[in-house]
Predict the structure.
Amino acid sequence: MKRIIQLTVNGERAEVAVEPNRTLLQVLREDLGLTGTKHGCGLGDCGACTVILDGRPVNSCLVLAVQANGSDVLTIEGLAENGKLHPLQRAFVEKGAIQCGFCSPGMILSAKALLDENPKPTEKEIRMAISGNLCRCTGYQKIVEAIQAVASGEIMQGGDS
Ligand code: FES
Ligand code: FES
């Protein structure tokens, strides 16, 4: 039996009819076409499906869509503004923190949630914030450096990339 849920996704209202067992990840990807949010393990282990739900990073594969009813969701598609990449997106590119890129949307959203709450995190706090996001390619160092570049102001809003 489907139930109608309402979400605000990247600032836009969406109404979707969902079965009770569908996850937020499935609804984002399959119903709303927002495939930037990745399906990795589907078990809460890899963080590839991270989105920001009412200001907090969550594994969207572990959230039932009906639980998210009435919530505000930010996905990677909602980060760029007026055609300009978010500083974290630019930093990941400029610092070489992206290889295959499969982890990147979730990693960037975890980093955004961190910087929104703690704009000047220590390296340890950065590593803690992304500890739920697995990356098989980069070794994490360049990812940490990219986040540090935004926290320090080296890479700021409004660049040309
Ligand atoms: S797909 Fe959700 S944590 Fe891996
Ligand atoms: S860049 Fe490939 S998994 Fe992170």
The first helix runs from residue 24 to 31. The two ends are 46 Å apart (CA to CA).
